[in-house]
C-alpha cells in the first residue's frame, strides 16, 4: 500500500476533537502513516501535546496562528496572553518532538481585521525561534507572499525547512522561496485555482520540495462526492451522505463537493483525493507522488528530538541513499 504523510492538519479542532481516534484509524487504513497536527493558540497547545502522547502517528506542532489572538475577530479562541511567547518556548522545552506551526500572515477577509504590522511581529518571533531551535515551521500565507518573502529573507535561510502550507502563491515566487529552504504543501484548496495556473506553479516546485496535506477539518477537496470521506455526524451534510464515512465502492453520483455547504468538514483520509489531483496536474503517477512526498516529509520532520522510530529509519535510509533527484 502507498504510504502518505499529512504534512499539515488540525485534528485537535473542536469541530472534530471527539472523533479523532476514529478519524486517525480510518486515515491510517487509507495509507496515512503520520499527521503533523498544528496547534493555533495557547488554548489548544495542551490538546495537541496530549494527542501526540496518545497517538504515535501524531507529530505535534505549536504556534500562534494570525487569526487566533484578537478577541474581536477570533475564529475559535481568545486573544494571546502577555506571556504567550514564554509559554510557547516552554512547550518546545517540554516536547522536543514538536515542530513550529501554525504561524503566518494573512491579508485575506479574515486577516484584514487584524493589524498587519502586529501579525508580522508575531510571525517574526516564531520564525526566529524555529531557526534557533532548528525545527521546521508550518506557515499560513494569504495575499501576503511579498511580505512573507521579505521577512523570510531578513531572517533566513532556514536549513530545517519552512512549510508553505496550502500554497497558492505564484509560480514566479517558487524559486525565491525555495532558495530560503521552503517546502510547498498542497491541500484541497489547490482545486480553487484554475487548472492551468495550478499546473504552471506545480511545475516550478522541485520534486524534493513537494508535500501533501489535508488541513482537515478545513479544505474539503472539490472532488467527486463518491470518492470522499465525510465525518460522521457532520450536520452540514445532506441527509443521504450522513452514512458515508468511507467512500462507497460503487459510483452513483457525478457531483463534486463544490455543491456541498462551505462548512462541510474535511476528513484526513481525503489526502487520497489531494494526491490524485496533484499527480494529475503534474502528469505523474499517484504512486510516484506518494513516494516522493512521503520521503520529503519524512526528511523534513526528522529533526533532533523527534521520536517516531519509522522517521529515524527513514532518516538513516535517506542519508545512505542521498537526496531524491
Ligand atoms: Zn491550517
TrEMBL record:
<feature type="binding site">
    <location>
        <position position="8"/>
    </location>
    <ligand>
        <name>a divalent metal cation 1</name>
    </ligand>
</feature>
<protein>
    <submittedName>
        <fullName>TatD-related deoxyribonuclease</fullName>
    </submittedName>
</protein>
<dbReference type="InterPro" id="IPR001130">
    <property type="entry name" value="TatD-like"/>
</dbReference>
<feature type="binding site">
    <location>
        <position position="140"/>
    </location>
    <ligand>
        <name>a divalent metal cation 2</name>
    </ligand>
</feature>
<dbReference type="GO" id="GO:0046872">
    <property type="term" value="F:metal ion binding"/>
</dbReference>
<feature type="binding site">
    <location>
        <position position="215"/>
    </location>
    <ligand>
        <name>a divalent metal cation 1</name>
    </ligand>
</feature>
<dbReference type="Pfam" id="PF01026">
    <property type="entry name" value="TatD_DNase"/>
</dbReference>
<feature type="binding site">
    <location>
        <position position="10"/>
    </location>
    <ligand>
        <name>a divalent metal cation 1</name>
    </ligand>
</feature>
<feature type="binding site">
    <location>
        <position position="165"/>
    </location>
    <ligand>
        <name>a divalent metal cation 2</name>
    </ligand>
</feature>
<keyword id="KW-0479">Metal-binding</keyword>
<dbReference type="GO" id="GO:0016788">
    <property type="term" value="F:hydrolase activity, acting on ester bonds"/>
</dbReference>
<feature type="binding site">
    <location>
        <position position="102"/>
    </location>
    <ligand>
        <name>a divalent metal cation 1</name>
    </ligand>
</feature>
<dbReference type="InterPro" id="IPR032466">
    <property type="entry name" value="Metal_Hydrolase"/>
</dbReference>
Amino acid at each position: 500500500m502507498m504510504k502518505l504523510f499529512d504534512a499539515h492538519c488540525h485534528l485537535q479542532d473542536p469541530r472534530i476533537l471527539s472523533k479523532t481516534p476514529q478519524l486517525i484509524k480510518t486515515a491510517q487504513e487509507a495509507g496515512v502513516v503520520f499527521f503533523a497536527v498544528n496547534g493555533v493558540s495557547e488554548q489548544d497547545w495542551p490538546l495537541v501535546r496530549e494527542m501526540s502522547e496518545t497517538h504515535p502517528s501524531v507529530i505535534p506542532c505549536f504556534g500562534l496562528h494570525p487569526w487566533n489572538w484578537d478577541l474581536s475577530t477570533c475564529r475559535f479562541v481568545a486573544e494571546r496572553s502577555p506571556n504567550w511567547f514564554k509559554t510557547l518556548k516552554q512547550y518546545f522545552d517540554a516536547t522536543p518532538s514538536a515542530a513550529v506551526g501554525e504561524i503566518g500572515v494573512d491579508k485575506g477577509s479574515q486577516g484584514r481585521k487584524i493589524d498587519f504590522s502586529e501579525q508580522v511581529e508575531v510571525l517574526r518571533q516564531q520564525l526566529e525561534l524555529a531557526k534557533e531551535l532548528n525545527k521546521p515551521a508550518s506557515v499560513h500565507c494569504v495575499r501576503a507572499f511579498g511580505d512573507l518573502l521579505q521577512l523570510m529573507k531578513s531572517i533566513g535561510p532556514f536549513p530545517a525547512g519552512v512549510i508553505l502550507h496550502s500554497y497558492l502563491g505564484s509560480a514566479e515566487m517558487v524559486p525565491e522561496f525555495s532558495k530560503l529552504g521552503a517546502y510547498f504543501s498542497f491541500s484541497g484548496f489547490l482545486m480553487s485555482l484554475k487548472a492551468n495556473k495550478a499546473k504552471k506553479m506545480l511545475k516550478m516546485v522541485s520534486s524534493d520540495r513537494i508535500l501533501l496535506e489535508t488541513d482537515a477539518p478545513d479544505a474539503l477537496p472539490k472532488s467527486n462526492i463518491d470518492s470522499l470521506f465525510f465525518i460522521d455526524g457532520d450536520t452540514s451534510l445532506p441527509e443521504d451522505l450522513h452514512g458515508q464515512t468511507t467512500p462507497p465502492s460503487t459510483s452513483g453520483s457525478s457531483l463534486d463537493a463544490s455543491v456541498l455547504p462551505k462548512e462541510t468538514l474535511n476528513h484526513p483520509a481525503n489526502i487520497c483525493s489531494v494526491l490524485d489531483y496533484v499527480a494529475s496536474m503534474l502528469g505523474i503517477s499517484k504512486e510516484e507522488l506518494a513516494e516522493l512526498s512521503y520521503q520529503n516529509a519524512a526528511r523534513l520532520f526528522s529533526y533532533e528530538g523527534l521520536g517516531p522510530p519509522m522517521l529515524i529509519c527513514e532518516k538513516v535510509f535517506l542519508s545512505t541513499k542521498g537526496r531524491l533527484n
